[in-house]
Amino acid sequence: MKLPRKQFAPRLLASLLSIAVMAPMSPTYVFAQPASSQSNAPLSQQQLSALVAPIALYPDSLVSQILMASTYPLEVGEAATWQKQNSRLTGPALDNALQSQSWDPSVKSLVSFPQALQMMGADLNWTQKLGDAVLAQQSDVMTAIQAMRAKAKQAGNLSSTPQQTVSTSGSTIVIQPANPQVVYVPTYNPSVVYGPWPYPAYPPPPPYYPPGYVAGTALLSFGVGMLAGAALFGGMHWGGGWGGSGSITVNNNTFNNFNRTTANSNFRSGSFASGDKWQFNPQHRGNVPYSNSALQNKYGKLSGQGSNQARDQEREQLRQNLNKNGLSGESGRGGENRSPSRESERSGSNRNEREAPRENTREPERSSERAPERMGEERMGGERMGGFRR
Asked: In this structure, are residues 192 and 198 in contact, taking their beta carbons and an 8 Å threshold?
């Protein structure tokens, strides 16, 4: 019997929806790609301030390894999902499980600090932008971190606590764990903890709240401390004041101790740095593009992006890795990790715009002749993306 048009359309729609729900989904990621009209102009201090705001109040050693790991956003995404699936592993069992993973040591180290790793994995758009800023403007990134710490301190929201020690050396503000063996990851709203946000044109990313977080009266709160062990091998050399040449450093003895227990059987003791300065390893970048042509020209071929054959191999490996690890493809700081806004947060359409989940999907089977789709809502022409503008 032929259904009337008015009855047929709703039934067709319902059928399509049921098929879509039952169909297996291929978990994928999408990363921002360089625009055809790239600009190699450095990010401004205002843009960098918005970019580092979510991590500027973390202990120095943890900040350094977040900056390292952010240059490998694909591996961060994989590690974040893997950590969720293996959240009960600790100690030697965790070290043994990490041996089967080929991630950069800086990424592996963050598995011991789930809150930091999940924050990065929940917003890979921000992670990628932070990493590219580290590669292009490392000293400027460190200057921005110091500037935001100064604002938090001036607002009365940064001081020593039982969890961490805040000290000053000249104009440099240093944050260290109160107990070197236990690291607490602070939770805070970047739009509030620094006082009235000074750069309205470049708001910081929406706050990330770990599962189970309950907002209290303190603007800077701490959860459960995590045993650091050898997992923290990084540091920050702030240079001679804010205008000095800062750099990310590595304690190679500690690094070798960490890598000896988390790397595979082919591990050989060696240096993770040039002297004591951290060195970026493009081989762990995979097929994730760089945000400007200068970085692309410098590292693209070293990352296996220089030929169609290398690109095909990298994408096939990406597809296998994503399927193997059961990645969800979800992005954005939303869902259970988004707590209701505090009374001092912005309301109305601006807040809705900033807190909207970012799209993070990509079809891994697409032809190798096509570049990955742009992630999230990145646009040119000064529109907002990840808390800052291009």
From this structure: no
Tell me which residue range forms the domain holding 312: 39-389
Place of tokens 């800062």: 246
Burial of 75 (0-12, 13-18, 19+ CB in 10 A): buried
Tens digits of residue pLDDT in 295-321: 988 998 877 665 444 545 555 565 555
Q: What is the Cα 182 distance to its own chain's centre? A: 22
Read off the pLDDT of each residue in 340-362 and give the average, rounded to a whole number: 40
Written as one string, the DSSP assignment of 223-275 is ---EE-GGG--EEEE--SSTTS--EEEE-HHHHHHHHHHHS-TT-----SEET
Position 242 scores a pLDDT of 40
C-beta separation of 145 from 190 below 8 A:
no
Mean pLDDT of 75-102: 93
Phi and psi (nearest 5°) for 182? -130, 125
Is 13 part of any domain? no
Name the domain count of the chain.
1
